[in-house]
Amino acid sequence: MRFSPRFLALLLPALLLMLLSGPVMAVDVPLEFNDPAIQDRYESLLEKLRCLVCQNETLAVSQADLAQDLREEIYHMMANGRSNKEITDYLVARYGDFVLYDPPLQANTWMLWFGPFLFLLAGLIIMFRFIRSRRTANAGDSGKVDSERVSRLLGETQGED
Predict the structure, then answer these.
(1) Alpha-carbon distance 25 to 68, whole Å?
(2) Which domain holds residue 71?
């Protein structure tokens, strides 16, 4: 089979574009420091920060692209001599307290910290009131029903005599 030069001139660039436009896989390159102390500090800090995409994972374990970007940013800040506090302050200023895996106790996070306990307390109060109201309702009704039944039975036995 023979192709015309014009066809080949169109086919080769099209094939080249197809090869270059394939999906690009992002490779998560582990970032390592030469100093083991800084490496430990880096890994410890990543465990304390939340992935903003996954929301239930730390930056250390998240596979999201944003997590990789944040790891690289933290790596460069540490390489430039920034402290953990400076890095976390920067990230909190940029993304809010949500970036911290263990957010601080502040006025704007009270519901986050105490909300589950308040809902549990409200549920217990509702449950105890419901149980108590059923007991009193049953006790009042059963006493009335029992006394009527006793009267009826006594009336029947007295009528037989």
Answers:
(1) 13
(2) 28-104
